[in-house]
Specification:
It contains 1 helix and 4 strands; from the N terminus they run βαβββ. It has a 4-stranded antiparallel β-sheet, with helices on one face. It is globular. It is of the alpha+beta class.
């Protein structure tokens, strides 16, 4: 069963554009990893720089990201899909 990770990060205001470019440059490699099913990136409509990643993997994955960009700690939630 696939696992979805919901990752919420508050990016430092002065580094938001740079962070978006890092994602744009690096996500093709992430998406090419074996076991990666999808990666979606979203930004909060009401708070610029609050970035959410929805990442679906074949199994629970961990890794480092956004070092130096994040204001505070990212919030990770791992979700299982349920059929209802």
């Amino acid at each position: 069963m696939a696992v979805t990770a919901n990752i919420i990060m508050n990016i430092k205001r002065e580094r938001v554009d740079e962070f978006k470019q890092v994602l744009k440059d690096g996500l093709p490699d992430t998406r090419a990893f074996s076991g990666c099913r999808s990666v979606r990136v979203m930004e909060d409509q009401d708070k610029a720089g609050r970035i959410t990643l929805l990442v679906e993997w074949d199994s629970k994955e961990t890794g480092s990201l956004a070092v130096g960009f994040v204001d505070g700690e990212p919030v990770f939630t791992y979700l299982d899909s349920i059929d209802i």
